[in-house]
Amino acid sequence: MITLERVIEIGEIAINRDPREYPFGYFHGDNARVFMWFASEEELISHIAECAPVMFDLDASEAKDFGREVSQIFSGKAELSTENLASLNNVAKSFLFVEWWGTFEDLVSGTSKLAKDLRLSLRDDETDSPVLESELDDFVELIQRYGY
Predict the structure, then answer these.
(1) Quick one: pLDDT at residue 148?
(2) I need a surface site. Which of 45, 67, 76, 118 has the fewest CB within 10 A?
C-alpha cells in the first residue's frame, strides 16, 4: 500500500506540472483547492483511486470499496465525462469532492463555469473568450495558484 508521505509527494508533483505537457487535470479541495495534472485520463483516475483513500485516511475496507466503485464507474474505459464526475462525487461524497475535471484545452477555450471564471480572472477587460497564445504563460501561472 502507498504511504501518506508518497501520496503527498505525488500530489505536489501533480500540482506543479505544466498543463501544456500534462493536459488531463482535476480541481478539488476544501478550503484550499488545487489543480492536479496528469499525462492521461487513466493516470488521473488511477491517482484518485489510489491516493484519495490514503489522503483521507480510509480504513482498508473503505479503500477497497472505493477502488471497486471507481472501477465500476469507468468499466475499463477512462472517460472524464460529466456523468462519470457525478458518479465519482457520489461515491466519494463523505471525503472528496472533485469540482472539475477535463483537459487543459477545456479551460483554455471551453464553456464550463470554471473555465470562464478562470479566463475572466486572467484579464482586466472582463472577457471570457478563449485564451490567446500570447496569454498562455500567464494562464498557466494563474491555474497554478488558483484556489489557494
Answers:
(1) 63
(2) 76
